[in-house]
Amino acid sequence: MVAPIIPALSQTFSTSVQTVALIVPAYLIPYGVATLVYGLLALQANGADCQNSADPRSISRAGDGRH
User: Taking the model in full, what pTM does it have?
Assistant: First the structure.
């Protein structure tokens, strides 16, 4: 898969496509991992039980009066 943004970024920053092709995943992979970590930290900060957060029964529907 070739991201369509890579050639535009290489022209904007006057560098090779290969360099940009290495930098883009080097940014996106830690960004994705950090999203998972920050999500767990946010759940713990709000007092949510991280083990049961994926349980659909623990999610209340808006306006149904259940919690």
Answer: 0.48
Contacts of 4 (CB under 8 A, 6+ apart): none
Please check whether residue 16 is in contact with residue 10, taking contact to mean a CB–CB distance below 8 angstroms.
yes
pLDDT tens digits, residue range 1-44? 567 888 999 999 999 999 998 988 898 899 999 999 998 888 88
Q: What is the CA radius of gyration of the chain?
A: 20
8 A C-beta contact, residue 9 and residue 24: yes
Distance, CA of 42 to CA of 19 (rounded, Å):
35
Task: With H, G, I as helix, E, B as strand and everything else as coil, classify residue 15.
Answer: coil
